[in-house]
Amino acid sequence: MKEVSRRRALKTLGAAAAAGGVLRIPAADGSVARLQSADAISSDALMPLAEVVLPAELGADGHHEAVAAFVRWLRNYKEGADTDHGYGNTRIRSTGRSPARNYPAQLTAMDDAARAKGAASFAAASVDTRRELVEAALAAANIERLPSRPDGAHVAADLMAHYFNSPDAEDLCYHAAIGRDSCRGLPGSEARPAPLKK
């Protein structure tokens, strides 16, 4: 899967609106724990981030769907689960700690950085200010490329990685309903994918 450079991804940024829902993160014992700090771990907290790291073409609804898909992925993440060894490799690896464990501190740090610039919070800062804060946070985390899947290095990079490596992002890139991971069958397979509906 292609890696997307941080600079290239940040150049495609846009604007959106807020949405709701509370993020559930696997606890140390493997159970799903509801974390209480809504400012740090809710979908509401991720939406201001989505506004500056996901394509503007998605619009508010698309940003909400991308955040919801990211939250579902995190909610379903299983620590210590066996992964597919891949073609030509017989070693089976296990998943590590949930990347979401790092997000509350990272979101709090961006809130603190926004307050240092005179904003009430990261969410209350202008889009341009938020973009600057995200760029600074990614640089401080030494993130040069997006991971193939969220790894906890930074919530902004993980949100981008989850979206930009998705079939939806590929469809948007080519403005065609490719449906990379869907099985469409042979009938009609010779035809070009249909244009995306506006």
3D architecture notes:
The chain has a two-stranded antiparallel sheet with strand order 1-2. A hairpin with a 5-residue loop joins β1 and β2. With 198 residues, the protein is mostly helical. It has helices at 6-10, 38-41, 43-53, 59-75, 103-116, 127-140, 155-164, 167-174, and strands spanning 24-26, 32-34. Residues 6-40 have low confidence and may be disordered. The two termini are 27 Å apart.
Low-confidence blocks of residues: 6-40
Number of helical segments? 8
Structural class: mainly alpha
Q: Give helix % range.
A: 40-55%
Main pleated sheet: 2 strands, antiparallel
Distance from N terminus to C terminus (CA atoms, Å) equals 27 Å
What is the mean predicted local confidence, pLDDT?
78
Could you say which overall geometry the principal axes of the C-alpha atoms support?
A: globular
Strand order of the largest sheet: 1-2
Our estimate of the beta-strand percent is under 5%
Number of strands: 2
* SSE run: HEEHHHHHHH
Rg result: 18 Å
